[in-house]
What does this fold into?
Amino acid sequence: MNTITPNDVPVRRKLTRSQSELVSKLFSYLLLCLGSIIILIPFAWMLSTSLKLKADVYIFPPQWIPQPMQWHNFVEAFTTFPFGLYTQNSVIIVVFVMIGTLLSCSFAAYGFSRLNAPGRNFIFLVLLATMMLPSAVTMVPIYLFFNKLGWVDTFLPLIIPAWFGSAFFIFMMRQFFMGIPFELEDSARIDGCNTYGIWARIMVPLSKPVLVTVGVFTFMGTWNDFMGPLIYLTDENKRTLALGLSYFQGSARSAPDLHLLMAASLYAIAPCVILYFLCQKIFVKGMVFTGVKG
It folds into this structure.
């Protein structure tokens, strides 16, 4: 006859607890896989459409695997419009916007987080209040201002504002700077380092996670920006990649070339996807340290 000893009870409880943890993990992984599949469906449809004939795009039920695959759609999309020139223009704008954003926002965030100045908190609240102002409200006055300066149809209206900071990015960097120990700053001042030196030699090198986070946000926002180039750029040779994609959407007289649009869209989103996967770990680390939740 089997008897149950008191020592067997904790063992059974441990097994039950481990089994429940295993079930919860499997359930979590199942939900994550299901969510990933749902999110990847539009991307799969984009890839499938980019390899179809124009007439096959509207077939119902949809054909997920085109037969045969039309690889020449990518060549036709790039040769129909000067996408090489559009890419070059987008790269120029993105590079200068990223440099200006990182420099101006990190410098302003350092002042708000570490320097004691009269009215600092009030100015910071006013800065955060600007985030509640819709861009549509300031669109016309800013356009008239840039037009008065003679900057319309140049890259300057798209680049120069980035050199004056962004409220959201300044907030992110300020949150990160506040977590850096003050002892490092005090030690630097004892060694004779001034405020600018502390910012350049201590704060910026230690702020790699938040700098990468701001850089990824800035790159994606500027690379995919459609409204800004549409408003300020009229010369065909100065158009950006986002504007080039709109040429495949057709008009009232012609149907959109969805197969070419999807091929060009894959080319346009490739840099954003590659950049995110390269900076994924640092990006997540910067989001956690700044306390920003999406």
In short: Residues 8-50 form one domain.
